[in-house]
TrEMBL record, chain A:
Its main location: membrane. It comes from Aliiruegeria haliotis. This is NitT/TauT family transport system permease protein. Keywords: Cell membrane, Membrane, Transmembrane, Transmembrane helix, Transport. PANTHER family: ABC TRANSPORTER PERMEASE PROTEIN HI_0355-RELATED, ALKANE SULFONATE ABC TRANSPORTER-RELATED, MEMBRANE SUBUNIT.
UniProtKB/TrEMBL annotation, chain B:
It comes from Aliiruegeria haliotis. The chain crosses the membrane at residues 25-43, 129-158, 178-200, 262-286, 298-321. This is NitT/TauT family transport system permease protein. Its main location: membrane. Belongs to the binding-protein-dependent transport system permease family. It is a multi-pass membrane protein.
Length: 285, 333
């Protein structure tokens, strides 16, 4: 036991909380800089507390490694991490995401042409979106082999239903008046689809696309628990857990967290370009 | 439903209209589901035809194309083989370890491991899916309860404390973009190594997964009263506690139930995935894993369907609670 670390970490936490309270109650609390500063300081103080507890109580690395150890491991094994990232994210998650999104989009366009189909598919799609679809991973690994194809297949199925449901909902988002206006212009089905209904559906579609980013990464990682070539984030996590090399596991989790938020951020950025006209995209105050 | 009321003759009774409305809502779903089952049966033929042909050849039947060995057939198109050998199509629905089991095989396995076990008085033997579903269900519900209580508590804190809102809320939102499920194997192994085994590690994964959706949904819900309503309570000189109990909490209920549905689905996924990595012996996730190790495809599909049924029941229970509560509160008619 090493009291210095604990006292230091607690002091840092208290000091950070004090600063945060001061900032949160000050005049400038609504400015962008303080809205950025407060959560970052809070996150840093939690990391310091983590470090202090691990060092102070001499927690063994097989239970909880210190953030500094994780960071050192991250820097030391960037080549392995990059290889795993390419295998799981680029090959598995991203390709499956793109295929699933296009499939869902095409299905939604077909479904949208018939009111009967829409009333049939929407409840089924909503039901499927709530199921633990990740359980089909063992079946798809059996069908498509151990490499990334099976992971992409899991991702396709996982992202399909949220995007389908949201797109079908979005294509209904125009109101009668707007559709009537297109009719008075003598617009064809495709004209009114491209110029009115698809743009109006974009906020819904992006909602589905954003939900699907996390699902894609989860699907690709969990599918690797059922068998994979000797690389990939899920493979590395399950084998390094078995070897009790938890610093490597945490480094993979760090990669997964960065990849997940960057993926989400990229889709959100694309959304702000495509749906710049939507009220939710207006700069607040 | 709207066109039902429009096309119905004016003197039709409320009952007739209700029947017609239900029919209009249910019929398309029935059609879509039957189409899915038809596609499933049709897909069984090409998926299983190669194994069926190999078996038929061993039994001395001549299969097309004549002269091709099992090895040659492996590289041929399964759909082409299915068209060339229509007599063997029936064999694709009765295999022991098919690549794609037919729906009736899955249904029979489900009955054999649930209803049949109950009839034979072994409802909770290790071979019964009811037992495995119960193991998963207990972890799910325990974790879900922990996650919901924690999430609501954090949401109350965030709504009432400006500094918590500024410091914690961005992380709660950001955490939804992170594949948290990836830490499941580690939580299981680490808790095992410090002597915590069984239900608790799985429940903690479930709790962790349901925690953030409930937090984010509840913050939205507790903030849903508009300025006018909050001002009204201020003119009554209501305290912060009274505002919370009489305005914020009641108006958060629709959000609460919606986020509980999301949290419940996430909890179930967490419990199932939590059963996979350590070679757990009980639970639906363990059944999935064991099935994939031993190539017992029918067992995998049966476990998958019980997981789906479990999810539907759990989400359905919350939906029913939601309807009852909101009806009592006068929020829906």
């Amino acid at each position: 036991m090493n009291e210095g670390w604990i006292v230091g970490a607690l002091a840092a936490l208290l000091a950070a909380s004090y600063v945060n309270i001061q900032v949160a109650n000050s005049e400038g609390r609504d400015q962008a800089i303080s809205r950025f500063f407060v959560p970052v300081l809070f996150g840093i103080s939690l990391l310091v507390l983590w470090q202090g507890i691990v060092r102070g109580f001499n927690v063994p690395g097989v239970i909880l490694p210190a953030p500094s150890d994780i960071w050192a491991r991250f820097l030391a094994s960037t080549s392995i991490l990059w290889q795993d990232f390419v295998q799981t994210f680029v090959k598995g998650a991203l390709s499956g995401y793109v295929m699933g999104a296009f499939a869902a989009f095409a299905t939604a366009l077909l479904v949208d042409r018939s009111d009967f189909l829409r009333r049939g598919i929407l409840p089924v799609g909503n039901f499927m979106a709530a199921l633990p679809i990740v359980g089909i991973a063992p079946i798809l690994v059996m069908w498509f082999g151990f490499d990334w194809q099976s992971k992409a297949a899991v991702v396709v199925v996982m992202v399909f239903f949220p995007i389908l449901v949201n797109t079908v909902e979005g294509l209904r988002a125009t109101d009668m008046m707007q559709r009537d206006l297109m009719q008075t212009y003598a617009a064809s089905y495709w004209q009114s689809l491209l110029k009115l209904r698809l743009p109006a559906a974009m906020p819904f579609i992006f909602n589905g696309l954003k939900v699907a980013t996390t699902l894609a990464l989860i699907g690709a990682i969990v599918a690797e628990f059922f068998g994979s070539p000797i690389r990939g984030m899920g493979f590395r996590i399950s084998t390094e857990v078995g070897r009790l090399a938890l610093d490597m596991v945490w480094a993979e989790i760090l990669v997964a967290a960065i990849a997940g938020s960057a993926f989400y951020g990229a889709v959100a950025l694309l959304e702000s370009f495509v749906t710049f006209w939507h009220p939710s995209q207006r700069r607040s105050r | 439903m709207t066109d039902a009321t429009m096309t119905a003759p004016a003197r039709s009774t409320g009952f007739g209209r209700a029947v017609r409305g239900t029919w209009n809502a249910v019929f398309p779903v029935v059609v879509v589901v039957s189409v899915i089952f038809a596609i499933w049966y049709a897909a069984c033929v090409p998926m299983n035809i190669k194994a069926a042909l190999d078996q038929a050849e061993r039994d001395g039947v001549i299969v097309n194309p004549a002269g091709a060995t099992a090895r040659d057939r492996r590289d041929m198109s399964a759909i082409g083989l299915a068209f060339k050998n229509p007599e063997q199509a029936g064999d694709t629905f009765v295999q022991e370890r098919p690549r794609l089991p037919a729906p009736h095989q899955v249904a029979r396995e489900l009955w054999k491991t649930t209803g049949d076990m109950v009839l034979r008085g072994k409802a909770f033997s290790k071979r019964s899916l009811l037992y495995h579903a119960w193991v998963t269900l207990s972890a799910t519900v325990l974790g879900f309860a922990m996650g919901t209580v924690g999430g609501v508590a954090l949401a109350v804190g965030i709504v009432h404390s400006r500094v918590m809102n500024m410091s914690v809320m961005p992380w709660a939102i950001a955490s939804q973009t992170i594949p948290i499920l990836a830490i499941a194997p580690m939580i299981i192994v680490v808790l095992n190594s410090i002597g915590i085994t069984g239900l608790i590690p799985k429940a903690m994964i479930s709790a962790y997964l349901s925690f953030f959706p409930v937090t984010v949904g509840m913050v939205k819900g507790l903030r849903s009263p508009d300025g006018m309503q909050l001002d009204l309570l201020k003119t009554y000189s209501a305290s912060q506690g009274e505002t919370f109990w009489k305005l914020r909490l009641p108006s958060s209920m629709p959000y609460f139930f919606t986020s509980m549905k999301i949290g419940m689905a996430a909890s179930l996924v967490g419990a199932i995935v939590g059963e996979m990595p350590t070679g757990a012996v009980a639970g639906l996730g363990a059944r999935l894993l064991a099935g994939s190790y031993y190539g017992q495809t029918i067992q995998i599909w049966a476990a998958l369907f019980s997981a789906a049924i479990l999810a539907a029941v759990l989400v359905g229970v919350i939906g029913a609670l939601q309807r009852m509560t909101l009806k009592k509160m006068g929020m829906v008619r």
